[in-house]
Every structure is written in structure tokens, then in C-alpha cells.
Amino acid sequence: MADWMSEASATIVVMNEAIGTLDGIREQLAVLVSSAFDSGAMHHSAEAELLEALRAAGDLQRLVDAVLVEGVAEIAERSRQRDRSERLSTRMGCHNVNELVQRVTRCSPQAAGRLELAQRAVGVDWDPIDGEAMPARLPAIRVALRDGEVGVDGVVAVAKPMLGMRDRVERTKVLAADAAIAAFARGAGPDGEPPAWADLLAVQAMVWACALDPDGDEPRDRDAGLDRFFTMGKARPNGITPFRGGATPEVAAQLQRIMDASISPHVQGVQFAESDGGGVGSDEDDGAWVDQRTRSQKQHDALASALFAAAASGELPTIGGAAPTVIVTAYAADLARGSGWAFLEGTAEPISMAAATHLACAGAIQRVVLNEDGRIVQLGNLERVFNAHQRRAITLRDGGCIIPGCGIPAGWCEIHHVQEHARGGPTHTDNGVLLCWGHHRFIDTGPWQIRMREGVPEIRGPAWFDPAQRWRRVTKSKTRLLRLLQPA
């Protein structure tokens, strides 16, 4: 009993000293940070000094992460009692460990969840009988966390695939993978690479998990298939229809690739030629387009482009012998005037005439004339707006969406009548340009203006893009760009 009391007293002393030390470090760091912020030290620093400051801060952050993970592990340990009233989280007035961590550290629920996941991987459990510590699930990563070689991001990156194997893999093999990944994190891997950051650790852990558990978690894969869903709610008063869903990994990955391809910041923007054909415009004329859409809006437009491209591909199942087609009804006079409302088959929510014009421009039109009693008195033939040969020709000329900075490829674009079809605009290559769904949908109400000059599209952008407000030829065709760059 005396030995136990002595050990407990020593532990209390060590903990008090640690708290005092942490408080002292915080006070010193607060003075340094305040001075750096107020003096603009980062702004005035040399590049090497800036990077060194970030490196040092990262080193400190990882050590702080170790303290946080160990503390959360102990909170979790003290909150496992069967009797809810005896749990630490309950006694502190919180619903669970996550809420307690949020309140103590002032972090988000997501950050608290990451700390919980990290502690499950590297936290130690204590034997309830003899009070001895039991090994962590990933002991080598635990040591790397203690030494400041990995932080919470790194531990979480490793924990997801490694813990996902559960009991399907022998413990000795898991420990071998744990040791190899920890060495990789320290920069002591077999290839002598520098210390790895979180994304590289995630790749390493996933490769090890695939190697050790080649069959994967079959119940998990089956459950994912059973749990997949997609639902559409009722249209809201503002016309927006909410979606909810859960995708299997391969579907989510495909959708993510579509999003990435559509909204990547690395896509090459449109280049301009002078309107008189006198060569490539200057740098100050070209400028840099700033896309003012939010990321969520860009992702919506990318999904719309993919859906409309799939519907137009001719490879989807047919409905009533025809490809999936959105049917819009409107009065011809309203369509020509550009005012009033139109209606979609399958929903009671009306759409604006601008949306109806967009659909009519991108699809096919069949004129059905009704008398005042609703009787069909005339049925016209289906008019395809642009045929395949015209589309190929326009694609060669435009290359993709002609709006500056938009990277949507030609295959996902729609063909826009510069002079509206409903107002007599011809279905001719001299009157059609490629626009992605998002820019096509709002071309009439947005800041971009398009005109055709001798069969070549020209763009006039908003004042924030081009203060001169000049009409500029759009040049995305690689053949035409090469011709412009070659000497006369």
C-alpha cells in the first residue's frame, strides 16, 4: 500500500510540473506570437526564415497533438463505465467524450472526432485488475507521436486503414506494418526518403492494409452496397430541389473525378486575339479570370454538365423508345418574348423562361399547338438543334467552353444559339458556340456577352475582367493558336 501511495504521489507531482511547464510555454509563446503579428514579422522575413518559422511551428504543433491525443485517451478511459452517472463526460455535464473535448479545447466536433480516432489507434488501455498499461494498437506510431514525428493528421491517416482490418490479420503482421509506417514517418524508410506527411502516410497504410488483408472487409463492402441511396426532395419555394444520398466508394470516386476535372484551378484559360486578327493580345489585355462561383456552385454545375452529357450520349436506356428527355411546355409567344413561366414534366414547380430557353437551345424542339380548350390542333416534327457534323465542326473551332478561364471540355459542353432559336436564329455553325452547362444557363442574365463576327465567336467580359470592355476573339482551337503564334 505504501509503495502504491508513493507512486501515486510521484505521478501527481510530475503531472503538476507538466501543467506548470505547459502554462509557462504558453505564456512565452503568446508574447512571441503577439510580437510577430503586431510587427508583421512574417511579411518582412526572408523566404528561408519564413519556411523555418513554419517548420518550427509544425514541430511544436505535433508535440501539442501528442498531449491532446493522450489527454483524450484518458478522458475516453474514464468515460467507459457501464453506469452513465459515473462517466467523466457525464460528471462534467456533457453527453459524450466528443462534447467534453470540444468544450475543453474549444475545437469543432470534427476535430474532436479526429482526436478520438487517433487515441483509439495509439492510446493505451489500462488493466482494471492490476492497473498495468496494455500495448497500444499501433505502438510504433504511438512512439512517433510522442517524439513529435507525426501529428493528429498523420495518426488518423494511418489509423483508418490499419484499424479497419480489425481481427482479420495476425497481430504480428500488423505490428510489422506499424513499425514500417512509423519508420517512413521519421524519414528512416528503406528508400531514405524525407519524413512523410499525412497524405503519404495514408498511402503507405492503405498499401499495407491491401497487402495484409487482400480480401478486404467483405461485410463492409456488402453493407456499403446495401446502404447506397439517393433521394430527391420536394422543390422549395425558391425553386431549388434538395438531394440526399450516400454513394459506394467507386461511385463517389467517379463523381469526385468529374468534379475535379471541371473545377480544377489548373485548367488553361481562354486566350484572346485582337479583333482585327493582328496577333495575340498583350498580357495586360488577357488578364486573369476570377470565377466568382462558390465551390458548391461549381460542383453543382459540373454534375449538371455530366448529367446532360450522359443524356445526350445515346447510351442510356430509353424511355418510350426515346433517350431520357426533359420535356418543357411553354407558350410560344412567351418563349419569343423571354417572359412568363414554363413547366417541366415530372414536377409541379415552374421554371423561368431563361431556363426554358436554355433547355430548348441545348436539346430538341417539337412544337405542339393547343387551342384554348387544350385540344392538340397542330403537331410539328422534332427539330434537332445541331447535328453531329455541326457539333464536330464547332468543337474544332472552339475547343471547349469559350468563357475565359472555364476548363470544361468540349464533350461536356452544350451548343448555344448566339441569336436565339426562338427568335429565328439559324441552326448554323456561324450561330453556335460551345458553353458549359453553368455558363449556358446564365449567359443571358450574366455578365458575359457573346457575338459572332464572320463565323468566329467574340466575347466581351464584365468591367472587373476587362475595364476596356472590348470585344475579343475567343481562341481555344490549338490549330488556330499555332497559326497566331507563327510569324507571317
Automatic annotation (TrEMBL):
A GO term for molecular function: endonuclease activity
Signal peptide (residue range): none
Protein name: HNH endonuclease signature motif containing protein
Keywords carried by this UniProt record: Endonuclease, Hydrolase, Nuclease
InterPro entries: DUF222, HNH_nuc
Keyword check for Acetylation: no
Domain HNH nuclease: 389-441
Pfam families cross-referenced by the UniProt entry: DUF222
